Amino acid sequence: MLEHGGRLRSAAREFGLPLEQWLDLSTGLAPYHWPIPPLAQSVWSRLPETDDGLSELAEHYYRAPRALPVAGSQAAIQALPLLRKPSRVGILEPTYAEHRLAWQRAGHEVRSVSVASLSDALDQLDVLVVVNPNNPTAQSLSSELLLSWHQRLAEQGGWLVVDEAFMDPTPNLSLAPSSQLPGLIVLRSLGKFFGLAGVRLGFVLAAPELLLALEEHLGPWAVSGPARAVGKLVLADSRTQELWRRRLMMDTARLDQLLNDAGLQSGGGCGLFQWRELEQAQAKRLYVALAQRGVLVRLFKDIAGLRFGLPRSEGEWQRLEHSLLESLKELA
User: Fold this and answer.
1) Where do the DSSP E strands lie in 105-241?
2) What superfamily does domain 8-28+239-331 belong to in CATH?
3) Aminotransferase class I/classII large domain location, by residue (predicted)?
4) 149: how many CB neighbours lie within 10 A of its CB?
5) pLDDT tens per residue across span 267-284
């Protein structure tokens, strides 16, 4: 199993601090609590039904022709490689490591590619996997560039898989409206933007034939009744969605400025986190110094840098700034 953000209990044991004393900025999730009312008893006692309107709400929210609910986009990441015969798969890296692992486990030939190398590499690929905005570097690629890659792949029966888990704050950059194109597969997650990672709900946006094959592979009742009920509530709440986007974009701009003012200026960000490039040893030392003060950020083993999530309250903002300045001063 690969490591992910949010391993707060593990950090608490490692650094000897109680859970309640931590500021967890390691996940890249929206830090606010979405207002979820009590759910009807029937969603707990009845089997889930797929004609409950969830897909239609998702299609409207994502502006996509078709949407298949899945148990988090991770379920699709693991299942999609099983729908193809052995293929040559390019992963635009560095990125979310579960993509590489899933394709390798399914027996595909996997190679790392870069934006600069893709013009030459595309003709040797059957599948290209891109995370946009990227996790953890926050690199964002234009729709025009991605669609040009898709066209070349589709001409030879290939796939372009675009993981848009962090796209919700900037929906105008999404490929969802084009997801009916053969060979284009867009993954979306309810957990990041809505701050509901525990619900385990995501969506696959693609042509009907591919969605049918994926649905048959996943089997019946792939998404729980409570998850479907929560999904319908939040996808229909356009007013809160707009407020969320504005707040997230203001907060990520504030985090960007805070990190820049502290001297961490090399990197990038999206609406849900900021990334800062650091030498591997320097990143490890800063991670430890912050953790010793009860501030958990995300350290990556093979990528030189740290990912910072968004604080929730003014007190958390002040704590992050104070802990960061103290840590950098200690390491200077």
Assistant:
1) 109-113, 127-131, 159-163, 184-189, 202-205
2) Aspartate Aminotransferase, domain 1 (3.90.1150.10)
3) 57-298
4) 22
5) 999 999 999 999 999 999
Structural tokens at position 216: 């048959």
The C-alpha atoms of residue 200 and residue 328 are separated, in whole angstroms, by: 37
For the chain, where do the domains classified as CATH 3.90.1150.10 start and end? 8-28+239-331
Task: Taking each helix axis as running N to C, give the angle between helix 314-331 and helix 238-261, from 0 to 180 degrees, rounded to the nearest 10.
Answer: 30
Residue span(s) of the chain under CATH 3.40.640.10 come to 48-236
32, 312 Cβ separation under 8 angstroms: yes
Distance (Å, rounded) from C-alpha 319 to C-alpha 290?
11
Contact 44, 156 (CB under 8 A): no
- Burial, 123: exposed, middle or buried (Cβ in 10 Å; 0-12, 13-18, 19+)? exposed
pLDDT at 119: 87
Q: Which residues contact 59 (CB under 8 A, 6 or more apart)?
A: 65, 66, 67
Fold of 48-236: Aspartate Aminotransferase; domain 2 (3.40.640)
Q: What is the pTM of this model?
A: 0.95
